[in-house]
Amino acid sequence: MGITISSESVINIDFDLISPTNPATMGNYTTEQICSQVRRDIIRMVTDVQSGHPGGSLGCTDFLSVLFFETLAINPSAFKMDGKEEDLFFLSNGHISPVLYSVLAHRGYFPKSELSTFRKLGTRLQGHPCTDKGLPGVRIATGSLGQGLSVAIGAALSKKLNEDSKLVYTLHGDGELQEGQVWEAAMYAAANKVDNIISTVDYNHKQIDGDIDDVLPMGNLAQKWQAFGWDVLEMNGHDLNDIRTKLAEAKSRTGKGKPVVIIMTTIMGKGVDYMMGTHKWHGSAPSKEQAEKALAQLEETLGDY
Amino acid sequence: MKEIKMIDEKDTRSGFGAGLSELGKTNEDVVALCADLTGSLKMDDFQKNHPERFFQVGIAEANMIGIAAGLTIGGKIPFTGTFANFSTGRVYDQIRQSVAYSNKNVKICASHAGLTLGEDGATHQILEDIGLMKMLPNMTVISPCDYNETKAATIAIAEHKGPVYLRFGRPKVPNFTDPNKKFIIGKADILSEGSDVTILATGHLVWKAIEAGRILAEKNISAEIINIHTIKPLDEEAVLKSISKTKCVVTAEEHMMNGGLGDSVAQLIARKHLVPLEMVAVNDKFGESGQGEELMTKYHINTPDVVAAAERVIKRK
Question: Taking CA atoms, what residue in A is nearest to B103?
């Protein structure tokens, strides 16, 4: 192991001892296999520290795996904050950090063994993603909800000024859309033709306190985004082919004067039978025994960290 | 006391507008954002000359701060403009997470700070903004005193990498600093040397401190007047050097006593060199409608209050 947690609880990483995953070798694995490994990582990470958000992480695994392994034009081995001539991704619902960290590690941003440091003192893998610790792949702190779309719009405007034709992608929770700032940003992007941005909403109908329809019903989401001037697509967030098709379709609709949003239907907790379709696992970790039950349903494909 | 001459009377927000206008010509990475107050912030000139680098965001300050944070990612240097109240309290969490914690190179430029905003009343007269901003790690807090200094500070913060809060005001006030003087962040400006009392002032209170110094001189009291244009990082060395000579200190600011310059100085002297301190600041009250000068008098932050504080603090030595 190239990572040790010393008695002072400072995590030391010896990069010489670790070869970051080479994305080129991913050619040996299907995206389905990657998804299975990412789901295992999520369960193991949150179980280890008995905290974190497994539900939404499992629900967004298929989308983020397709996005990072098949869609984004990125350069993980030489991460640069400015991201010039690269596609950018912003995770606005920062609490689903376990899935982001696992995908980033397997894609080669940092060694996958570092996943074992999640939420521990001194880690770069903070409870919610941040730039403060210098983790490659993260360009803004998120966690306090509703801020990511504004930041992504700024990054998209910067790309336009720099005559950089690459795109900006975002992911948002559905409950997060209750934050007013999201709609300030949505109004701005459409009015100003920020058409180099593709946002995705994780529509799992759940938030911490329960069903969205019980907490604060949001009506017809697709119609809301349309009314705000966005080009709207809908997709099944667990059908890899549908994700591929809709991401390609979304990309083809950029540069036409409108920002694009995909309303992605998912099941919170997808892949672990007892976590599916309930808000119970939004922000709670399984016990060791429960984790064993979950891991038995998820094949180890790329090797556990 | 050294004679300090007024050149003319101008508003500090026009100094910001002039500085931004100059940056528009000299630094193509500089971009500007405004939340429906372009005229009030004097950003019209930049908007007219660089429309491709100017972003009108409407009345949506939270979105403005987020967009500014995002613009830095592609290497831009965004200057946001709105009133101080809407630049800080209204968007504290956006600044905290997307700007300060993420350490983004955003310049938050805030006009109409303090009581001298005047007739609009307490809803708009923020007196807590320095405190809010100085508590944030990574944040630099600057409060220049006149037109020339605000212009110089605006130009200087473009060269500084990291988040900055730049505070200025609405009314026309005496303009007296050297227009050719380079603004150095974090370096206090000794305006007049003295031996009996140190007066540390910031923003509009710097001129009031100069007026107070003249009155004190007539009473044979020698005041050392220092312009603290950078609240954070505080020029501790300059403050400690002065108080080791005068053995007492007055702070003066158009801000709440809690969280302002006086609070920073109190912390410093309690840790390093304890001397009597008097604070000229608003004491735990909201403002109200009225003319700027009337309000400064009513809320005890005008020239006579600085004089009285100096006399009180000298007696406590």
Answer: A132
Among the partner residues A158, A184, A185, nearest to B73 by beta-carbon distance: A158
- A60-116: per-residue pLDDT in tens? 999 999 999 999 999 999 999 999 999 999 999 999 999 999 999 999 999 999 999
Q: What is the pTM of this model?
A: 0.95
- Considering only the beta carbons, identify the residue of B73, B78, B94 that sits closest to A147: B94
For residue A218, count other CB atoms closer than 10 A to its CB.
15
User: In A, which residues are within 8 Å of B76 by CB distance?
Assistant: 158, 161
Q: How close is the nearest chain A Cα to the Cα of B25, in Å?
A: 16
ipTM, two decimals: 0.96
Contact B23, B154 (CB under 8 A): yes
- The domain limits of chain A are 3-295
**Does A142 reach chain B within 8 Å, measured CB to CB?**
yes
Question: Residue A205: which residues within 8 A CB-CB, separation 6 or more?
Answer: A174, A211, A212, A213
Mutation target among B73, B79, B106 for the A interface, most CBs of A within 10 A? B73
| Closest listed residue to residue B223, CA positions, set B241, B203, B242, B244 | B242
Structural domains of chain B ordered from first start: 9-175 (3.40.50.970), 189-315 (3.40.50.920)
Q: What is the radius of gyration, based on Cα positions, of chain B?
A: 19
CATH node for A3-295: 3.40.50.970
Chain A residues near residue B97 by CB distance under 8 angstroms: 141-144, 147
* Contact yes or no for A282/A294 (Cβ under 8 A): no
